[in-house]
Amino acid sequence: MKASRTKERVTWIIISVLVLLYALFPVVSIMATSFKLPSELTSGKFLPSSWTGSNYEQILVGSAQDLFLSSLRNSIGIALIATFIAVVLATLCAYAIARLDFPGKKVILTTALAVSIFPVISIVTPLFNLWRNIGLYDTWPGLIIPYLSLTLPISIWTLAAFFRQIPWELEQAAQVDGATTWQAFRKAIVPLAAPGVFTTAIIAFFIAWNDFVYGISLTSTEAARPVPAALAFFTGASQFESPVGAISAAAIIVTIPIVLLVLLFQRQIVSGLTQGAVKG
Amino acid sequence: MATVTFDHASRLYPGTEKPAVDGLNLEIADGEFLVLVGPSGCGKSTSLRMLAGLEDVNAGRILIGDRDVTDVPPKDRDIAMVFQNYALYPHMSVADNMGFALKIAGVSKEERAERVREAAKLLDLEEYLDRKPKALSGGQRQRVAMGRAIVRNPQVFLMDEPLSNLDAKLRVQTRTQIASLTRRLGVTTVYVTHDQVEAMTMGDRVAVLKDGVLQQVDTPRALYDRPANVFVAGFIGSPAMNLLELPVTDGGVQFGGMTYPVPRDLLGEAHGSTVTLGVRPEDLERAEDNHGLAVFVDVVEELGADAYVYGHTEFDGKRYEITGRVDGRTPPVAGSTVYVRPKEGHVHLFDTQTGLRLGEHAPGTPEASVEDLNVPVEAGKTAD
């Protein structure tokens, strides 16, 4: 009995380590590269022989500063706005889908799914032409709108699934307890819905933050170019020098907000908050 | 504290033909414990939710006291409800759960704490006030749900199968607690259950519903002794009453090899050539051979003091399951055939076609109200 439990634990530890290695190896590799000197890039060694911060200097205060910092600003702004709009719209939509019975409910869900499986690459060219004609090319709204088409479907699906699990009897209990419809929603339902909304917001933010195709196709200047697209414009000190070090440094920096987000909100993402509402 | 009146109240769900509750007429006295009972889908929960204001009333009225609350939102009805799944707020502590209604009502923090403490004392919940619902057992959650209702000091308690999620032992225990608690508080209570044992043990009066229609409302004793129709007869009592379609003969009905005597005027009321005779398991007794109904014994359940005999009989091409309750010391053997007959004066006769009880107009039928009862509500309270 005890032996089998130990064996099980060992198996789990091995699997966890393998998964961690698989997931973290690219990140560690990029991080190592970001601390290498240009001359060392092709050395074939995993770790730099002498650690240098010159790549970070280059993108934050050096020659690539304008390119990187403005794109960072664009990325943060555009991703946040797209996330905010997507979550607000998806919350309303999912609430209706989970609570109300109306014709066309299935159609909305299916349409949302259809939109999300539509290949981005196939609509980017027509969108490029359209955006140029109506003046949205190379602007923030020009990216926010396509990002909504990426983030809305998954937000609606996630939230609808989440809202369906909320015991709506609570709302009725609150009403019988003397609460108005709005009070019942705010005091009994919102606290339970919050973790789901946070989780959705984070997923939506990731999607908008990580997009490359729209970012590179629908922008041309610092006015709206997001980080993933800007990375492609990095150049080395001379044309014979590869910008891989600087790109790696930038990649590490743009990963930081995501890591911070997850660390900050992991308490809100705690599931199982609804446990104990009903008999369980 | 108040009376509750359903006045021809109906509920028709959109997209359905048949009302879920059809013209319900019911008067509940001040301080009475009324149980709504029936099989699932009979409209008992819908009736309760109509009283709570969670379900629209499509026709008729509902009154609490003298106030017509038909179109009053739930929050203004001054009622408290215990839900089947308790519906505790998972993000609040037990104390906050119980004090939620008072907080909404704007009661001061000190008074709130005081009243929550009182209710917690009553329910033995004092040490759990700081816990979240998920850290409680099923029975404790149930008590918190009760506490949430008690703290309010409402006009009416509504309970929607509050015991159905508890295990059997706890259910019996909590059953008596709830009954004694509501009586002590003297608050009018409407209690919904599908369990007829719960209904019989808890209610001052019991209202039996079927397919949205009130079948009978009466004290548990009267319901057991004088069921108004075949449905109530079969529903109330455990094991269920034996119901047999018997041919009418001269001066009685043909019960196997014997004629059970029935007054002529009673038989005259019946439509058709048969009547339905109901006899409870404990009212069947052994008869001499051929002087009764031959029953083939399938199973004997020995419970110690008594034994239940499950058997079957066949006549007129129909098969009837027969249950009998006999002395535990001398039960018949499974596989044997015994002859049984009803004890004198302990049968129930129903019209086979209409299902209604033959004989005088029974009190507590849908037309009757509280005043018609020959057993006063107060007496019913102490009787059980």
From TrEMBL, chain A:
Q: Where are the transmembrane segments?
A: 12-35, 76-98, 107-131, 143-163, 188-209, 244-265
InterPro entries in the record, alphabetically?
A: BP-dep_ABC_trans_perm (IPR050901), MetI-like (IPR000515), MetI-like_sf (IPR035906)
Q: Which SUPFAM superfamilies match?
A: MetI-like
Principal subcellular localisation of the protein? membrane
- One Pfam entry name: BPD_transp_1
At the top level, the lineage of the source is: Bacteria
Record keywords: Cell membrane, Membrane, Transmembrane, Transmembrane helix, Transport
Entry's localization field: Cell membrane
| Lipid bilayer topology | Multi-pass membrane protein
User: What range(s) does the ABC transmembrane type-1 domain occupy?
Assistant: 72-265
Q: Which family does it belong to?
A: Belongs to the binding-protein-dependent transport system permease family.
Please state what the protein is called. Answer: Carbohydrate ABC transporter permease
Which species is this record about?
Arthrobacter sulfonylureivorans
